[in-house]
Amino acid sequence: MCLCENAEVDAPSLRTLAGDGLKLAVWEWPGEDPPLLFAHATGFHGRCWDEIVSQFPGRHSLAVDFRGHGRSDKPDPPYVWPEFGNDLAEIADQLGIRDAVGIGHSMGGHSVVAAAIRRPETFRALLLLDPTIFPVAHYGLEPPDVGFVLRRRNRWESAEEMFERFRHRPPFVRWRPEILRDYCEFGLLPGDGGLVLACPPAVEASIYMQSRAPESNLYAGIPSVEASVVVVRAGTTGFPETFDPNASPTAPDLAWRFPNGRDVFLHDRGHFIPMECPDLVAAEIAKLITSDRTAPPGEFARP
Fold this sequence. Notes:
This protein is an alpha/beta fold.
């Protein structure tokens, strides 16, 4: 599989599916299977993956807008984490997705693992980009203080205004400019006499608040995931009592808990790996497209 720099890729079609009484949006690029299935982080949307999808012209790719995000329905909080994995499995079932490479960032990483546990035929391989799968001891702790999320600016005049406000500020200053533009352009919807965030602050805050709930703990099901799994972890660390959006939430030993896991540690990167280094992400996806799913258990993992 060769990567094509600056490739021309057609704009995706927007599909709307029904799941759990909600309308769920899926962006789809046509092409050959096995497909790539992308899952975004809390507060983001499916079009944040455009730059990475562009490196795989001719490959069937899908990027979800999770409930509460993008063009999907936005029920009132609370938002509990099992819903996202269930939605992803339901989308895969409705579209007949099998043997995909699942790519998930942060909450999206948690969700592709949850979907793999629920519907094992969905994935042949998983790329988990700083997934929000905490060390076991963190589940059941008090929720983080996310008051600043509720105070987040919600109304904007234009995507360009949002881009100009963010592009010189951390953490966005480290993002590829074209990815920040996609984040702004597709992260706003008409409302309040202008444009408003496609993930309302109350929704984003609720997701963070539920992240350490006992029902968010996937460890009982992780040993059943037979797909090849690559866990890419950021080097920026935080503390459970403090919420730092740029700190890695990922358990350091997560990769070794999968039967076929590999750990990639990026000591000089923060949590926003797909936005900072999309070429590295694309290279890992290319490896997984051609990886041998039939490798004996344990051959992929090396603690």
